[in-house]
From TrEMBL:
Residues 132-286 form the Fe2OG dioxygenase domain. It comes from Cylindrotheca closterium. Residues 217-241, 301-324 are annotated as: Disordered. This is Fe2OG dioxygenase domain-containing protein. Belongs to the iron/ascorbate-dependent oxidoreductase family. Keywords: Iron, Metal-binding, Oxidoreductase. One of its GO terms (molecular function) is oxidoreductase activity.
Amino acid sequence: MNFEKYPWLVDLSSPEAVAAIEKAQQSFQQTGAAIFPNFLSGLALQECIQDARAQESTAFTTDDVHTAYLRPINENTDPLSVENLEMRTQVASIAYDELPPNSILGSVYEHPLLRKLVSKIVGKDTIYLSDDSLGCCSINVFRAGYHHSFHFDESEFSTTLMLQESEIPGTGLFQYTKPLRDSPDDLALTSVANAIHAYANDAVTTKSRLLLEASSAKEQTISDNNNNNDDDDDDKSNSSSFAPSLHTLDFAPGTLSIFAGSKSLHRVTRVKGKRSRLVAVFTFASQPGFQNTSTIQNMFWGRSSSRTRPRRGGQKEAEEKQQK
Ligand SMILES: O=C(O)CCC(=O)C(=O)O
Ligand SMILES: [Fe+2]
């Protein structure tokens, strides 16, 4: 971690830390993400990039379709509903158990300070490392042509660390809406339909129901706007589609991003050029023992495992202490 750029990290109760955290909290709540440029730098960043490059060619590649909710098709709902709209994603991912046993990336993920910082920004007293032996801390590899369609994450809190940008600027962008819902039970159908309709219409093969949902959302938005004139800029709907605004993350190698992955709809646009886009994904949960479903494990790592994340020396004790 870059203690030169972020000296307040060593004391999160200092006035500097409180001010920086407050700013990040606001950004997280209003836009759906907070970023810390150069959070990792120098040799530590170089080592993470080297580990990622060493494994990228053998990482499992998914070329599959999924809904925005990353859930199986709901047979009880209209097949044309946006709930059942399947979009294509192509991405490779280096699983946690494919990283070297004592990787720097793993030690950043397990560092108690990172958890403390993320918990303050997402507004929780304590958050826990994921217990998923594949997806707790993985690296996304986006080769030329790869992209990740709009979705909400299964994991509650997502944190990413940019390692390597794609070669062609303006490609492989991480784009996200403000939080659209409070819990995974809320499908936020109208906002999701509007966003997909406005920004990813090429993904829509069967449009009729989506258009219907989007247009009913339009009516809803009009009446919301009539009742509420004090929206700030981010809340203003796109005038042509009434879709939630789409933000693009300002992402450079070493940038840490904390985003509301389970509440903000997000995607990665298609990558162009020879260099892969490499992004580490750290996942956290509000309860200990989180594991991804086997459907998600199979989709992104090509296998499923209920093994718990291996602990390094001292880690087991540190986590037990955290839970007390
Ligand atoms: O590669 C990224 O920036 C994040 C992609 C993503 O949304 C995910 O892996 O769930
Ligand atoms: Fe995601």
